[in-house]
Each structure stands twice: as C-alpha cells, then as structure tokens.
C-alpha cells in the first residue's frame, strides 16, 4: 500500500493530538534570551505549586490549568492507576513513613484462567453438589431436576452477561458486584442490594460450615457427636445440637485464621480447588467403571420399604447355621424375642426381605424409573416402586423400627430453593477485578466459561446419577441404606473416601473464602458512607484488614449456624443472591435503554431483552423457592433503601436511576404540555417570593412553615429570591443565599426547588421569577408572599410599588395570589392548635380558591383540629335566609364541612371617621410625592451643574443635553440654534436655574398650606368606607379566629393611586392576628363533580 492510499484510508479515523512543550523536547534550549523554564508537563517533585505554570507555551490556558489537569498529567495518572484492596494504600503509606524508601507496587498479572475461571469454578461447585444433588435427583426425578438446574443456570448465565457488560464499561474498583450495582443504580439501591449481597455471602459461609460439620459427623467421625439420642425419635434434634456446637467452634477457628492473615487462606485456595476437581473426576471415573464393574453396595428392603443397615448386618429374617435355623439381628428389631414363634411387627410378618444393588451401574435400566419424581411428606417410608408390599393395619410408622424415613417434605419449589446456592459464585471474578491483567477481557470470558463448565457438570451429573444409582438410594439423604456412606461417594472411584475427604476440604475452603470476602464487601459499603450506622465497620488493621467487619460477619454467620439445618439455610441465602442478580440485570437493562453517553461496554454480546428476561427469572425464582423468604428479603432491602434515602449521605455517582428519573420527568413534562390541568386535578403550585437580608438569611422563615402545612410535599413548590446587582459581582452571595434557603427548606421539611436570581433592580427580578419559573407544563399557578408591613416607614416607595406590581402581574398572568399578613405570628410545624376556627370571608367568587385552601390546611396536623367557618356578605336587596341555604347546599356538594353565616351590611352613610381617614391618606400621599420630587430635583440639580461645567471645559460653545422628559415641566421651551459645526441643545444654564426656582415653589409653606386645605376624592372616600365597614364586621366575627382568609381587592387601574390601595388593604385587615389575602386566578379550581 503506497503513501497516498494510506492517507485515504485514514481520513475516517479519529485523531487525537497531544501537545508537548518544546522545552520537553529540548531541555537545554535557551530562547529569546530567557533561561530554561520548568515545563508544566514534567511530573517532577522539584516543581512547587507557585512555579507550576510559569512556562510560556501554555500561558493562554493558565486560568484553565488552575482548575483542569493537563493532558500529559492526566495520562500519567491513568497509566499509573493501580486497583488496590481498600486499606492497603493506607498501610503502604504508613510503611513509607517508617522506612526511607518507597516500595514499588507490583502490577497485577493474573489472567483469565487463574484470575476468573478457577475462582468461579471453586465457588460454584461445592457443598450442594456433594451433599444434596443426589437427593434432589431422587426426589424430583431426572426430568424435573433437569429443569431445576436449567432454570438456575440460565438465570446465572443471563446475569453473567449483564455483569460482563457492566464490568467492561470502565474500571471496576474494590467492591466488585456492590460497586457495579451502586454506581449503576445509585446509592439507595446499591446500599440495599450491597447489604443483601453481604448477608447472602455471610449465610453462604454458614451453609458451607454446616456442610463441613455434616460431612464430619455423618460420614467421617460419627462417634465424635457430643449429643446422642436415647431413642430414634430424638436423633434429629441431637444432630442439630451437635451442628450448633461444632459449627460455633469452627467459626471461631476460621475467623481466627482470617484475622491472622488472609495470605494463608489464599495459599490454601489452590488445595481446596484441587480437592473439588479431583472429586468431580472421581465421580466421572466411577460412572465409567460402573458400566462394566458396578460397585457392591447392596441395600435391604422389607416389602418395598428401605431399611437402614446401620443396626443389622445380615439382610434376612433368619439364617441357617449348620442344621439349625437362627433368627438374625433384623428379626430381633421387629420381634419381641429371638425365637421363631415370637410376636413380630405385622408388616414384617406379611412381607419378605429382599436385597438389591444400590449402584446397578450405567448399563442397567434404572434410568427408566428415575426419570419421574417421587415427592413425599415428612416421615414417609422410602419405598421402591414395583415390589410387592402387603400393608397391615398399622396406622403410623414406628420411628424405633429400622426404616429409612424422609426427614422433610419434598416438592419442586422447595428443592429449587435448596439447589440454587450451588450455582452462586459467578461474581468471584468481578470481585478480583483489581488483580487481573485485563479485567475487561478476563471477567466476561472467564465467568461465562465457568458457568458453561459447571452447567455441563451439573446437567451431566443429573443424568448419570439417575442412570447409575437406585431411586431409593438417591432419596436416602444421609446414606443410611448403604451403611452410612455418602451416596455420591458410593459411585466414585477408586474409593468413597475420595469424595468424602475432597468434599470436606472443599466446603471448608468455601467457608473460609466467604468469611474472607464478606467483611471486605461490608468494608466497601461502610467506607462509601451511605449507611451512617455502618461507618464503624470501615475501620480495620493498619494493613486494611476489616477487623470490625469480620466480627460482624462472624456474628451473622453464627445466626445461620444456630439454625443448624443446611436445608433451612440454603433458601435464605438464595433470596439474597437472587435479589443481587436481579438488580445486576436491572442495572444493565436500564443503562442500555437509557443510552447514556457513558454506557460504552467492550462486551458487545448483550441486549436489554436478555437482561429483562434474567431479571424476571430471578424474581420468579425468588417467589417459587419461598414466597415468604422472598417477601422478608424484599422488606429488608426496602427498609435499607428508605433509610439510606432519608438518613444516608447524599452521593452523586451518575447512576441509572437518576437518568431514568430525568427521562421520566421529560416524558411527564411533555405530556403536561398537552393542556391545562382539569379542575379536579388543580392544586396550588406555589412560587414563594422570599426576601433575604444583607447576610443572605431569610427574613420570614414562617413562609416556608406555612408552605409545608399547605402543600404536605404534594405538587410543585418553587422558592424564589432576588438579589440586586450583577451576577458576576453577586455570585458568592447567590450561592450563600441558595445554601441558606435550602437549609431552611430542610429544617421546615419543605419539598421543592430553590431559585435565586440576580437583577439590576428588584422590580425586574421579581417579574422574571413570575414569568419564567418552572419548566414546561410544570409551572406555578399561585404566588405566595409576605405583606410588606414596613411600607409606611420605608423611605423609598420601592417596597410597596413592587408589591402592587406583583398583584398586577399575577392578575395579567392569570395566576392566583396569596398574601400572608403578620406572617411571623403564623404557627410553626411543631405547634398544634387544639381548637379554634379558620374563617373564610367570601366576598366575591374568583374560582373557589378560598374554599380549597382551608381544606388543604386541615390535612396538616397543625390545623387538623380547627373548624372551618364561611362568612358571606349580603347587601340590602339580598335574601339572607335563601343565601344561607344555597351556600350550605353548595358546601355539601363540595364535600366540605363548614359552618355557614350570612352577614348583612346595610348601606349606611359615610361616617366622619371615614371622611377624615381618607383625607389624611390623600394628604400623606401628596406630601410624599412632593418630598420625593424635591429630593429628585436636588439630585438632578447637582448632576446638571457638574455636567455643565464638564461640557464647557472640554467643548466650549457646546451646551449639555438633559433629559427630554424633564423639559416638559418648564413653562417655555428654550431652543438654541447653533452653527453647522455646533450641536443642537435643549438646555441652557439659565434654563437650569429657572427650573430649579420653579420646583422650589412646591416646597414652600404656601404649598404645604394648600395640601392641608385640599378636599378628598369621592372615589377614595367610597373605597375607604367599604374597607372600614367590612373591617368592623370581620373583626367583630373573627377576631379570635386562628386564621382569616379574605378576598383581596384588585389594585386601581391608574397607578397614581397605588399608595392609596395599600392604605385600603391596611384598613381592611386592621385588628386581625393572622390574615391570608386571596386573589384567585379567575378559573374554577374546585368542583362539585366527581
């Protein structure tokens, strides 16, 4: 390929250029007379922070380099990344402090076979294979056993595919499966599932220890039992007590070994793995040998019932010794004397004793019988079908007789729960991700190969067991019919002891591995800090060994030991593992469907449907195995989830649940855009306008208390505040105000959003909040703010002018408005009203918000015991009695409980008090206007003179221009015509002086005297009359009310009367403790229809 062709082929490639400094290439170069400078790319310890960025080559990026790393340093850190076990780094740092030389960290070198395949193989093949698989095949038959194994292996295979996708989507640090789930589904799910996985691993350790003790006491040293049963009925309880004692001692020994050093456990891991492999090879060798030379393990049957050969040596009722017939030990067990004429058990007398081979071999046709299931109840005889059996009159089985009984009831789902732990252990490779040379390649390959291998072993063992071993021997869990031998050991070659010893060491090793892995998982959870009360378990020895977590693991493992039954412990850990696998599949499916930009796994052989099927299969297996255990496990996970959600540390891990929430929110917002909400769905979506002081603290925190009582966490709540200035100057104040508001929201338990904006003036900032808060259809429909109680004492009118503008803008935007007067006297969330009334003064109907708000308040515990009263005003032409009946019917149809009262307001003459108060109001308003005008003119005069002098200095002959609007106040317009090279001006020095003298006239004593001689406006008199009379009625009826809700009159159309409007509202609410002025949006917000 020539050079031109190579260039053509490279046009579609992604090219990444990394810029290096020329001082890096030529370290001795001196340019432009400047000595050699330190390169910002060199990772040198000689460069201190002060001279880090003194080089010229990247001077343009100096400000960015203060925050962002250079490409070279970033690549250097990535190249030197090591995934150490948590705690090892601290241990190395401690050693470095003691020693003068730093130890070099060895790079991980484990490949797929050693690092993933063999550990998974060791964890999957274990106690269930050796102790329970033959029993499962005998009880459920080959067909149903095949389905049990197939479902479990399919579940783990699908989970391994999902896990491979997650594990190859970046580096998986210490924590393994917990890390994958928590970083994919968030801290709540991660913590809940991580703790469940920890419990599953811990109970798995208990199961392995119980298996070890069962092998020891049943097949190796039965005489070592401490508790011995006096009669056969007490053997089960005695065995459980022995398991508890020996299991506790074994835990102590194993915990001591793990505490002393994990390196000893790792050194023994290869020995334990060799035992597993040799045992499996012995099984296959025994199957091959049985084809031409079956082992001799006869079993004794009475009729079709299997007998336990531990208590007798000869399988016959009597034998001939010489010429004499002598009864056997078996005869004596069923008869009351060794004599031939003794009285014997009825079934014993009616049936013959036969002997058959327990291991007929693979060449026999025993597989035809073992294909089908033989489930039974607890205490049933193990019977061989096809043999004659005459049942006598006996009603119950006598446990003292040497029969082989079933110790527990068997059915498909129960066997499924017992078997599933035998396929767990697929995450052994992902847990060792830090020790792998190429984790993203080794984890998928090694895990899937291990599952394929173990699935082949389990499926072939099911068929081979059913083809080689007699059915009653398969169903004999403890091998009582074959002289107390391990059933699977009877098939092995060269000796049953190969399986017994191999299974003993393999279960012992699996228990040690569980006690080693579970504490590290707990330590990873504790160090993440998502569960506060578990943080103590993140501490350990100096080398990172989790001492406290190991102690917790031992205590929980002891609980499993006290259960003492392997068959009862197995379903418990099945639940926890299945839940963990379910969420691994959920994480993969979620990430795939969301298509997050960071979801780029190297493992490509996955699909979201496979993950969904795996998740569904895990959930189905949970409830099939044990529905009550499944509910308990889900309840534990749910409690942990809610605890982390409310009390745990907040973490942002870029998890899929957050992405799902964003997608769901986007979908919901798009749906909300279809149209306005129906009246039945209307609820106040609040925008709360808060004021902050100079220190950015909230002035009226009771507004948030009232919001919590009104909303109870439902609907939208936006808390808005405005700072005056520019954003660049006020950035720090914005952050501080936002933090203070959010802290207060947390204290008051107000669920919502905070929005702090910066504007050049408060008026525009508030307007921007009202217009632009919210998103799409999720916008506010109600504005809540506090009454400006210092509006009269304020020097500038901005306070009340902004308030009146808010009233006008909410009306124009068709928003509801709530104004809380005396907000600081409103109750806190901790107060409780043990009675009292919420009074509603329904003057005009503007949508029914007055009716809805008291109902919402009464749902909160602060107002729950308050009664609701509704007052309406009748004019002189109204029928008060009929109005009351109609209002009661209306409230009944609204399903609201309230007392109704109609108040009559007669058309009285305007009182002198009203006239005088109106006059005082207008006089005050006029004086404020003149005072404000005088102040403005004084400021204008100073500015005019300064500008005039400045203009004459730099531009002689040019007169300064002033505000054109101010010229309208002049009595005569003065214009000067200048030469073509001059500028046309409208103000002269003489005009400035004339305007100043004119404006001074308004502040003379004569001007003030005219104010006191003025007459009030008749329209204002009528409005004041309404406010005074209505206030008298409201105070008379509702002075002792807990809260008064009142229709808020609208502002005047002419802005010249805004200050009078504030006075009207002040008069209307005088003498009331807590008032909520309501102004509806005009549309109906409450309906009588369902």
TrEMBL record:
Pfam families, A to Z: AA_permease (PF00324), SLC12 (PF03522)
Protein name stated in the entry: Solute carrier family 12 member 7
Keyword Glycoprotein: yes
InterPro entries reported for this sequence: AA-permease/SLC12A_dom, KCL_cotranspt, SLC12_C, SLC12A_fam
Substrates-to-products reaction catalysed: K(+)(in) + chloride(in) = K(+)(out) + chloride(out)
GO biological process: cell volume homeostasis; chemical synaptic transmission; chloride ion homeostasis; potassium ion homeostasis; potassium ion import across plasma membrane
Record's keyword terms, sorted: Cell membrane, Chloride, Glycoprotein, Ion transport, Membrane, Phosphoprotein, Potassium, Potassium transport, Symport, Transmembrane, Transmembrane helix, Transport
């Amino acid at each position: 390929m020539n050079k031109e062709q190579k260039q053509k082929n490279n046009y579609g490639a992604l090219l990444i250029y990394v810029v290096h400094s020329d001082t890096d290439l030529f370290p001795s170069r001196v340019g432009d007379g400047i000595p050699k400078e330190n390169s910002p790319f060199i990772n040198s310890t000689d460069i201190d922070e002060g001279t880090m960025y003194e080089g010229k080559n990247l001077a343009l990026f100096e400000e960015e380099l203060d925050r962002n790393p250079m490409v070279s340093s970033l690549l250097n850190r990535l190249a030197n990344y090591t995934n150490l076990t948590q705690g090892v780094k601290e241990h190395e740092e401690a050693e470095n402090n003691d020693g003068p030389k730093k130890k070099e960290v060895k790079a991980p070198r484990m490949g797929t076979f050693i690092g993933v395949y063999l550990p998974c193989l060791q964890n999957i093949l274990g106690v269930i294979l050796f102790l329970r698989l033959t029993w499962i095949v005998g009880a459920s038959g080959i067909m149903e056993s095949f389905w049990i194994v197939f479902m479990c292996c399919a579940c783990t295979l699908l989970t391994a595919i999902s896990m491979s996708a997650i594990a190859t989507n970046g580096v998986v640090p210490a924590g393994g499966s917990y890390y994958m789930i928590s970083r994919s589904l968030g801290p709540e799910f991660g913590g809940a599932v991580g703790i469940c996985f920890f419990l599953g691993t811990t109970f798995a350790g208990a199961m392995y220890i119980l298996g070890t003790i069962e092998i020891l006491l049943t097949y190796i040293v039965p005489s070592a039992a401490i508790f011995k049963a006096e009669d056969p009925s007490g053997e089960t309880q005695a065995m459980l007590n022995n398991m508890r004692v020996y299991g506790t001692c074994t835990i102590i020994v194993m915990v001591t070994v793990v505490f002393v050093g994990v390196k000893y456990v790792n050194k023994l891991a290869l020995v334990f793995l060799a035992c597993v492999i040799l045992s499996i090879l012995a099984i296959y060798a025994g199957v091959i040998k049985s084809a031409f030379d079956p082992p001799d393990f006869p079993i004794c049957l009475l009729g079709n019932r299997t007998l336990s050969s531990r208590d007798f040596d000869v399988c016959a009722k009597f034998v001939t010794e010489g010429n004499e017939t002598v009864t056997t030990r078996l005869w004596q067990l069923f008869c009351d004397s060794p004599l031939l004429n003794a009285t014997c058990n009825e079934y014993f007398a009616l049936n013959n004793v036969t002997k058959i081979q327990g291991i007929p071999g693979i060449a026999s046709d025993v597989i035809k019988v073992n294909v089908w299931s033989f489930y039974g109840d607890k205490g049933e005889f193990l019977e061989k079908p096809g043999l004659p059996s005459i049942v006598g009159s006996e009603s119950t089985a006598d446990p003292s007789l040497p029969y082989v009984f079933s110790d527990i009831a068997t059915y498909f789902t129960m066997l499924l729960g017992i078997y599933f732990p035998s396929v767990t252990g697929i995450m052994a490779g992902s847990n060792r991700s830090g020790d792998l040379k190429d984790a993203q390649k080794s984890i998928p390959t090694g895990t899937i190969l291990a599952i394929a291998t173990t699935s082949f072993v389990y499926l072939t063992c099911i068929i081979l067991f059913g083809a080689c071993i007699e059915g009653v021997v398969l169903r004999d869990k403890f091998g009582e019919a074959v002289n107390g031998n391990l059933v699977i050991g009877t098939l092995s070659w060269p000796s049953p002891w190969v399986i017994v010893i191999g299974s003993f060491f393999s279960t012992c090793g699996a228990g040690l591995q569980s006690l080693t892995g579970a504490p590290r998982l707990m330590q990873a959870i504790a160090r993440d800090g998502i569960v506060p009360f578990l943080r103590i378990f993140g501490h350990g020895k100096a080398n990172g060994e989790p001492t406290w977590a190991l102690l917790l693991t031992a205590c929980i493992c002891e609980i499993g030991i006290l259960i003492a039954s392997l068959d009862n412990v197995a379903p418990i850990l099945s639940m926890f593992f299945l839940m963990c696998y379910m969420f691994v599949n959920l994480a993969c499916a979620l990430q795939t469907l969301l298509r997050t930009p960071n979801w780029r796994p190297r493992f490509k052989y996955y699909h979201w449907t496979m993950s969904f099927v795996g998740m569904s299969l895990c959930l189905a297996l949970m409830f099939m195995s044990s529905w009550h255990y499944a509910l308990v496990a889900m309840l534990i996970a749910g409690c942990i989830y809610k605890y982390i959600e409310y009390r745990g540390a907040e973490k942002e891990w870029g998890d899929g649940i957050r992405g799902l929430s964003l997608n769901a929110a986007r979908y919901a917002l798009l749906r909300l855009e279809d149209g306005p909400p129906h009246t039945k769905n209307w609820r106040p979506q609040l925008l709360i306008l808060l004021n902050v002081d100079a220190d950015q603290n909230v002035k009226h925190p009771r507004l948030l208390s009232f919001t919590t009582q009104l909303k109870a966490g439902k609907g939208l709540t936006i808390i808005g505040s405005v700072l005056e200035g520019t954003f660049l100057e006020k950035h720090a104040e914005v952050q501080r105000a936002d933090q203070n508001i959010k802290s207060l929201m947390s204290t008051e338990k107000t669920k919502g959003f905070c929005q702090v904006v910066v504007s050049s003036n408060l008026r525009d900032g508030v307007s921007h909040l009202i217009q632009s808060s919210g998103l799409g259809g999720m916008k506010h429909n109600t504005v809540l703010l506090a009454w400006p109680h210092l509006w009269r004492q304020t020097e500038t009118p901005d306070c009340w002018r902004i308030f009146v503008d808010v009233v006008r803008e909410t009306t124009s935007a068709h928003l509801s408005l709530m104004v809380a007067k005396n907000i600081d006297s409103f109750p806190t969330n901790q107060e409780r009203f043990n009675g009292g009334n919420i009074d509603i003064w329904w003057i005009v109907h503007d949508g029914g918000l007055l009716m809805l708000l008291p109902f919402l308040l009464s749902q909160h515990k602060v107002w729950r015991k308050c009664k609701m009263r509704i007052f309406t005003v009748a004019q002189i032409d109204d029928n008060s009695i009929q109005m009351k009946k109609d209002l009661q019917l209306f409230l009944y149809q609204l399903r609201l409980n309230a007392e109704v009262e109609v108040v009559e307001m007669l058309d009285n003459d305007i009182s002198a008090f009203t006239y005088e108060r109106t006059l005082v109001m207008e006089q005050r308003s006029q004086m404020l206007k003149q005072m404000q005008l005088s102040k403005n003119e004084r400021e204008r005069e100073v500015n005019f003179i300064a500008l005039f002098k400045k203009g004459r200095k730099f531009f002689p002959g040019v007169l300064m221009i002033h505000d054109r609007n101010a010229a309208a106040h002049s009595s005569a317009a003065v214009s000067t015509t200048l030469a073509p090279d001059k500028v046309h001006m409208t103000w002269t020095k003489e005009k400035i002086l004339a305007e100043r003298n004119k404006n001074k006239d308004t502040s003379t004593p004569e001007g003030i005297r005219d104010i006191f001689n003025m007459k009030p406006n008749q329209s204002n008199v009528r409005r004041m009359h309404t406010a005074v009379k209505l206030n008298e009625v409201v105070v008379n009826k509702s002075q002792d009310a807990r809260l008064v809700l009142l229709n808020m009159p609208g502002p005047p159309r002419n802005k010249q009367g805004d200050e009078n409007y504030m006075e009207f509202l002040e008069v209307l609410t005088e003498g009331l403790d807590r008032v909520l002025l309501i102004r509806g949006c005009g549309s109906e917000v409450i309906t009588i229809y369902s």
